[in-house]
Design brief:
about 10% strand; two-stranded antiparallel ribbon; alpha+beta; single chain; about 20% helix; binds iron/sulfur cluster; about 120 residues
Length: about 120
């Protein structure tokens, strides 16, 4: 199986493996995004903060929490019966998520992102 080059993202198609939404790491969400996502979920903002986020002890910036599971999935990661992953807040997902893998990448992402396999 050949691999796409790290620079060859113009033909990239997400294979919905969910790996980028799992494991170590954080999804940083800014205040405007919290408001948008809470509205999308029809959830009061304070309830959204309590149920889905944790605040940084130093500056109060917020991060999405992990859902249950040893692979530390994002709280909003869904898995279909066919094994494909999805995002419960796809239409309102954070900018950090929108930017992967085009604007930023974790090291060696081409080794685990199935969209990078031909
Ligand atoms: S790791 Fe790659 S293929 Fe898998 S869900 Fe994320 S972007 Fe899509
Ligand atoms: S918000 Fe959606 S796209 Fe972002 S990490 Fe969570 S499940 Fe993935």
């Amino acid at each position: 199986m050949s691999k796409k080059s790290k620079k060859d993202l113009d033909t990239f198609t997400c294979k919905r493996c969910g790996t980028c939404c799992s494991g170590a790491g954080f999804v940083h969400i800014h205040k405007d995004e919290c408001i948008s996502i809470a509205k999308y979920l029809a959830t009061p903002l304070e309830e959204f903060f309590d149920k889905y986020t944790v605040a940084d002890a130093v500056d109060g910036e917020r991060f999405l929490i992990d859902g249950p599971g040893e692979d530390k999935p994002c709280i909003f990661l869904t898995r279909d019966a066919d094994g494909l992953s999805g995002c419960r807040i796809q239409a309102a997902k954070p900018r950090q998520c929108q930017g992967f893998p085009f604007k930023w990448r974790r090291p060696n992402f081409e080794k685990w992102c199935k969209g990078m396999a031909e």
